[in-house]
Design brief:
It is built from 15 helices and four strands. It has helices at residues 3-35, 38-63, 71-91, 98-102, 118-142, 148-166, 169-172, 192-218, 220-237, 242-268, 278-291, 296-316, 321-335, 339-354, 368-371, and strands spanning 178-179, 183-184, 187-188, 270-271. β2 (183-184) and β3 form a beta hairpin. The two termini are 19 Å apart.
Length: 373
Amino acid sequence: MSGRAGGRWARSENWRGTVGFIATALLVFAVAPATLSPFRLELLAKYLCFAIAALGIGLAWGKGGMLTLGQGVFFGLGGYAMAMHLKLAEAGPGRLPDFMVWSGVDRLPMVWEPFRQPWFALAMVVLLPGTVAALLGLLVFGRRVRGAYFAILTQALAAAFTIWLVGQQALTGGTNGLTDFGTFFGLDLAADADRRTLYFVVAIVLGLLYLGFRQVVASRFGRLLVAVRDGEDRVRFLGYDPALVKTVAFTLSAISAGIAGALFVPVVGIISPALLGVVPSLELVFAVAVGGRYALAGAILGAVLLNYAKTTFSENYADGWLYLQGVLFIVVMAFAPKGVLGLVGQIRGTIARRRPTRASAPARPRTAEEVSG
């Protein structure tokens, strides 16, 4: 491809991305609040929380080739950090959260005390999952653990984390988790107007993270991350440290999941081990695969589509919605292995190839990311 043709192609792709982002923003910030009932808007807010977590998987798996099956751990760390603060704020100064009273606890555990401060809770939403992911990444990637071994390790971590939470009734609420939150930083979670405001908060956070991750992908680090995915040994021979590159991407993915968990708590009103185990973590990966893992927008689209389908199937087919969800995943993977965005990209590419082209600007081969939009 000539330089001029390449420039036109890049400008075209940037234009499509800008138009797509603006159109999506209009749908999320204008159309949805104006047309959806409060209940449906809350469901959409929940879908967007899952989309934030899926965005991190799109970075780690789609761009970095790290199939992480334990994002529930980081989702839970962020969620419990936020839930601990909300329970203490609801209980009031010097008082214990309700579940501790029921469990016979007569003194607030030391680890809970700092979470009375909102700034500390917000910091922990980011630092807890980020620190755990960074330490795990340095340990695992430094030993060149990758592929299926890394996926199994993260899955085992999610299972172990869930078992630990269940066994800490007096500290974490056990199987029931933490629930019954009345306020969220001044917002009344029982008021429709304040819950509408919370929806906008979730949407804004998702938009900012998406734009930030796009900058990461477009940067030199992003190109290096893709290079590590496609040829880790070659990158190492060139003098780079693939373990460090993968650790940074994995840490960003974990932080995204932690933020998603923190927002999920006030939106849904509960955080429990059942939401963080192996199955929820796998569902997040399925969502990214359905949307298209090679594009960050595909991760978001997949999370919204899969959770919308889950809600629709469960409402209309209470006895067999799990089977329908499985069929949906199989159909998408069979006919669109690169996800929904990948299928759209293939259709667009087919249409473009059928158009007459100038001899001076022959089409160049498209990468997986480009095919996925």
